[in-house]
Amino acid sequence: MISEKMQAAINSQINAELWSGYLYLSMAMHFEANGHMGVANWFKIQFKEEQAHAEIFMNYINQRGGKVELKAIDAVPTEWETPLDAFKATLEHEQKVTAMINSLFAMAEAEKDYATRDRLAWFVNEQVEEEDNARVLIDKFTMIGNDGMGLYMLNQELAARTYTAPSALAAE
Ligand code: MG
Known about the structure:
mainly alpha, 74% helix, 0% strand
């Protein structure tokens, strides 16, 4: 069995992952309404990835004989000046998520809950990728600035992103 404390902490993380998804869905809807279709596509896929993150944690709690408790999801921002601003907000948010995952990892170690620690190791690696993805796009949008052709081409690139489940753990 998973400890009550660990279960409560993972349930909070499930809420944080779903909030992340809600944030990226809000970004997708904002940029779709503003004609940045590639940016909208990128964030729609990010929304699905966050749902998969929540699913991995939900499956894990169930596998350990625990109880998933879904809490209210707080409201998210709805306006961003430019795609660059949205990707800066994404990086800032993912850095917070990384800190949360690291805290969970430390808690699992302190409790000698090695199964939870090992599951969290997947998220530690995933966060490296999440932060890097945002950073790369910040660099690209910064380089392009207000160049119309550049923005058009980068939107085409982001429109090509397709969803693949980040891990088979989401489907268990
Ligand atoms: Mg996540």
